[in-house]
Amino acid sequence: MHTRRIGDVEVSAIGLGGMPMSIEGRPDEARSLATIHAALDAGVTLIDTADAYHRDAHEVGHNETLIAKALASHDRGGDVLVATKGGHLRPGDGSWTLDGSPRHLKEACEASLRRLGVEAIGLYQFHRPDPRVPYAESVGAIRDLLDEGKIRLAGISNANPDQIRQAQEILGGRLVSVQNQFSPAFRSSEPELELCDELGIAFLPWSPLGGISRASELGSSYAPFARIAEAHGVSPQRVCLAWMLAKSPVVVPIPGSSRPETILDSLAATELELSAEELDQLDAV
């Protein structure tokens, strides 16, 4: 498995996104555990989750609990950097709400610590800016958690360039990652990716294949990805991830998966080399 860095931690060049295993349409637990174990067997050392990855109101942190169970039952579980997030909430009716208050973020972190069964969270990320709370106050809470040793690494998610710079300043140069949506269908995070490349901060594209409902449509919606995939005898999804990896050494995609076969196909993107001409064609989509 090829590796990249998040802060001072070496991780697999592609991680596993846990959300599909816990929200609407999720599989049974046995298949989810098999998916996580298949990823670990293949060398994955980064798993991304959040306390908001659940379906029903009474099961906050479902995905964190699932991941903790999977890691505890695998001999490589201790090698994984678990990245979780706080600041987003799901009332249980399918909607998403926000709470970026320092009090909530600190309480959420404590709850995540208990569910993950660790003394310090590997990577804790502010999930999404809350317009009701000054951004500096929210990131200040993340800084406090870092200073207190409750988290080992600090990141932000769904941030713009100004917020990245502000977070880096508030954290005293200790911002290690930015997790933003980025895919062939969602290219507006290019400026954030470029800034992360400039600053040496890991960029973690979420929904890199277009999201749960659209990942299977990648080849039919974006002809160059399908054409290049056919030329290499691989899936368009694998081409997509290889294209992202080629953009910058700071890019660490975290495709969501709920089947062993899909995460294994994604991980094979680290072995796919695309030509400069092919990359240009994909960039032009």
Describe this structure in words.
The mean pLDDT is 96. The strands form 3 sheets. This protein has a 7-stranded parallel beta sheet with strand order 3-4-5-8-9-10-11, covered by helices on one side. Helices cover 40% and strands 17% of the residues. α1 runs parallel beside α10 (260-267) and α3 (102-116) crosses α4 (135-147). It starts with a strand and ends with a helix. By secondary structure, the chain is of the alpha/beta class.
Secondary structure topology:
Elements: E1 3-6, E2 9-12, E3 16-17, H1 29-41, E4 46-48, H2 62-72, E5 81-86, E6 88-89, E7 97-98, H3 102-116, E8 121-126, H4 135-147, E9 151-157, H5 161-170, E10 175-181, H6 190-199, E11 202-206, H7 218-221, H8 223-232, H9 236-247, H10 260-267, H11 276-283
Parallel strand pairs: 3-4, 4-5, 5-8, 8-9, 9-10, 10-11
Antiparallel strand pairs: 1-2, 6-7
Helix pairs in contact: 1-2, 1-10, 3-4, 4-5, 8-9
Number of continuous helical runs: 11
Assign a percent range to the helix content.
Answer: 40-55%
Find the count of extended strands (DSSP E, 2+ residues).
11
Q: Gyration radius, to the nearest Å? A: 18 Å
Largest sheet properties: 7 strands, parallel
In what range is the share of β-strand residues? Answer: 15-25%
Compact description:
The chain is an alpha/beta fold and 285 residues long. Helix content is 40%, strand content 17%. The longest helix is centred in the middle third of the chain and has 15 residues, at 102-116.
